[in-house]
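Recall the central idea of this unit: under ordinary conditions, the amino acid sequence of a chain determines the structure it adopts. In this exercise we apply that idea directly, starting from the sequence alone.
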Amino acid sequence: MKFGQFALLLLLGALLFSGCAKKTTEAKPTLSLPQAGAIYSLNDGEGGFRIAKVVTIEAEVVFVHLFTGRWKTRPAAIEAGANQYPAPMAFSPDTFLGMQPVRMQVGTASPEEIETYSVWKNSNSGVL
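Accordingly, the structure predicted from this sequence is:
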């Protein structure tokens, strides 16, 4: 086999194998209401991203624990555990969906997290 033919076969083989490589795509924001207990990355509207855990959902409220960390790009799921300081917040479903949520992890809300929702609800605080 001549060198030119060998090089051509090598090039064709490389092209075939490169097409089989696993491609990574950026996660798409959800278009439906979130799941209680799940962790989402949110576009904060200021050029960054934050992580929130959905505690509960009612007709006009998506109650979350918004974590203090902020990223310039959507964080990986593993980074969600590094956030230790949640701030309880209530959003309307439209506001929440407007933050382009991407589900990172499925989970459940703890009794303590649900208690923060009860405290918020009894305080008659507003919804963003």
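The longest strand covers residues 49-58.
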